[in-house]
Amino acid sequence: MTDPDLTGQILAAAVEELGGQQRPGQVEMAAEVSTTFATGEHLLVQAGTGTGKSLGYLAPAVAELAGNPQARIVIATATLALQSQLANKDIPTAVAAAQQLTGTTVSHAVLKGRSNYVCLQRVRDGSGLEQDALVADPSEASGLGAEVVALRRWAEEEAEADGLADRDDAPDHTPAAWSQVSVPVRECLGAQKCPFGEVCFVEESRRRARASQLVVTNHALLAIDAMHGGTALPEYDALVIDEAHELVARVTGAASVELGPVQVERVAKRCLPWLADQTGLEFLDAADTLQEGLDEAEVGRIPGGEPAVLAAVRSVRDAARQAVTGLAGGAAEEVERNQAQAAAQEIFDIAERMAKLSEFDVIWVSESERFGRQLNCAPLSVAGLLRDRVFADHAVVLTSATLKLGGEFRAIAASVGLDATGADYRGVDVGSPFDYRSQGILYVATRLAPPTREGIAPDALAEIAELLWAAEGRTLGLFASQRAAEAAARYCRAEVPDRLILCQGDAHLPKLTAQFVADPEASLFGTLSLWQGLDVPGDTCRLVVIDKIPFPRPDDPLMQARQQAVTQAGGNGFMAVAASHAGLLLAQGAGRLIRTLDDRGVVAVLDPRLVTARYGSFLRASLPDFWMTTDPEVAVAALRRLGAAANDA
């Protein structure tokens, strides 16, 4: 068992090294995590923004590993930003503190999915249009070719320097360029068959992870490890899941598949050179058959029974099976043939899964301008997978600033497969260093009518413009739809012309965010990608506007199916799925306002149902403990006072 005093000493030393101050919540969290490592009991710990939760779990982790060199702890995050912060700042600081106190150095590594690393086989034996760029003068190359040239040169430099060719360290590039130097998981030849297996970057990353005590990975790779019987991660003794509020969505994404005519046709064409004419023709025809089946189907969830589109799916399955058989027997050096066979196998596996129409899957037809119609398949629930493959054998810590929904851990616990009553976990809220009641106001616009599907109402637009005027810009607008964000931007540009209004879609989001930060009086309007992860401390963000409660779309097939499943099991599907989803996003969105001890401002929710509906109390209990008002004059006056105080400073 780890000495709790050592955990505290490591935490204190690490915080001092980073120039910070220990906070009671961070100290409490470290003690709770240390207890979990000792007892094996799962822990859900909510640590509000500003607590310093990374060191709150790293200090006990390195203390545990310093005392037990044979042990391994895995940390799984949702975002690349946190993964980078851990690898480059927080972990080295905690490890250095432990080394100073114990004389033991804890080894650590970062492990990502295969497509995050360069594939040397693609770089050195690749072919196609991008190959032409390699023989051109780099000064004359442009667009995709220039990016591929730069990536390949960088990859060779990484190989020479014993690096890992991790995408995060690569020169600037587009996804299209990266696809020319990486390989999808299913098309990887494997270290034994690949001519570059001995110097493979992915294999090296795995070797380093196996040789390390502390391994940082992501939710998606954790899901893949669970789905494939522990083949993606090295064996470990304990697991910390940071940003745990995103775990279900990330695991669902990793376990979901898509099937469309363009995808089938592309794979069929790759296979043609090695297939008998009839087999190749049937594979190509299967793409047309799938297109016809999708055209006849209705957009939305595939009903039970024998829907017509399933006949098209079975045609794809059968054609792909024949193609896989026809491509068998390729020699190891026939790289393109072997990769084509792997692509055909993937088409077969997806079609086979969809054709089963399992009660544990949700299958639906979607339609978009970019992809046209396609079939989608996602697990009805990931709770069983997480319960049986993640929580069964290891102590797990789940942490986030937003784990309590409706004031309780029950909803999050149930969604990841834990007992909602708390029988198999401890739930701890270590609070926040922020005094939300004195730092922020929650204004709910009860004088407005509830939002409708017809778009944002004129009186709501007027409310936004008045609040933005009072805040002197400095507004983050979080909208339920792109149409609403654009309408609000147009209105505010006309009504408050002396303020810069940025709107998602005007340019790439990183550029807009940078402009928002650079111009303190600017405002930024956008949709879901702004609700989570945006960190803009200081007076740049004085007002957060939320136009409506972010319930799932009523036509979202997966959310509909999950809600129905809870109801059929005797639960409250609306509260378990729709309200929990909305509560989580509301908490994340409102959390954009207060990021430091000095931040002040207003969160304005223009949806009166937050107060008037029966579920309103559940949603409000999910939010930070702001002082609340329904009086618009109070909100406007508060914003004006903040502006006056800032101008006098």
Automatic annotation (TrEMBL):
Domain of life: Bacteria
Keywords assigned by UniProt, alphabetized: ATP-binding, Helicase, Hydrolase, Nucleotide-binding
A family per Pfam: Helicase_C_2
Gene3D superfamilies: P-loop containing nucleotide triphosphate hydrolases
Helicase ATP-binding domain residues: 12-293
InterPro entries: ATP-dep_Helicase_C, DEAD/DEAH_box_helicase_dom, DinG/Rad3-like, Helic_SF1/SF2_ATP-bd_DinG/Rad3, P-loop_NTPase
GO molecular function: ATP binding; DNA helicase activity; hydrolase activity, acting on acid anhydrides, in phosphorus-containing anhydrides; nucleic acid binding
GO biological process: nucleobase-containing compound metabolic process
UniProt similarity note: Belongs to the helicase family. DinG subfamily.
Name of this chain's protein: ATP-dependent DNA helicase DinG
Taxonomic classification: Bacteria, Bacillati, Actinomycetota, Actinomycetes, Propionibacteriales
